[in-house]
Amino acid sequence: MISFDLRSLHRTYRERNITCKLGDISVSGTTSYISSREFILMIPTPRIKLCMLEMLNKDVILEIENVTLDGSIKWYTIECDYYCIGIGIHKTDVPVWKRLLSETTADIVNPGINHAQV
After folding, report:
1. d(CA 111, CA 45)
2. What pLDDT is attached to residue 76?
3. Residue 66 counted as domain residue
């Protein structure tokens, strides 16, 4: 049995701007949680005029920092007025994705937690 429990994945919170080509349209969004093979892309709902249900498991083209990557939409949900879209990076582009991640600043573990101070 496969577990999709988010606590079992090593993921970090990073906000990065990514342009995603969904079908015939390109939309810009911001990442939230990122792992070595996938990420969550937050896109305001008015920007997407497609039926997201029809986009599941479809290939998408991603552009981040002038680098183009291939991925696919794994899942989506709606949170307030944003689509939260789970996008997996294709195997051939995982090394490039990891390089992009390593070039960013330090991880923010969870920005919503108030850390104890001594």
Report:
1. 23
2. 92
3. yes
CB-CB contact of 7 with 33 (8 Å): no
Residues 25-33 have a mean pLDDT of 88
| Other C-beta atoms lying within 10 Å of the C-beta of residue 89 | 22
Residues sharing a CB contact under 8 Å with residue 86, sequence separation 6 or more, in sequence order: 38, 39, 40, 73, 74, 75, 76
Give the CATH number, domain containing residue 88.
2.40.10.220
Pair of tokens at residue 18: 């990514």
pTM exceeds cut of 0.85: no
Question: Taking the alpha carbons of 81, 34, 55, 19 in that order, is the dihedral positive or negative?
Answer: positive
DSSP H helices, 27-70, are 52-55
- Show the domain range for 26: 6-102
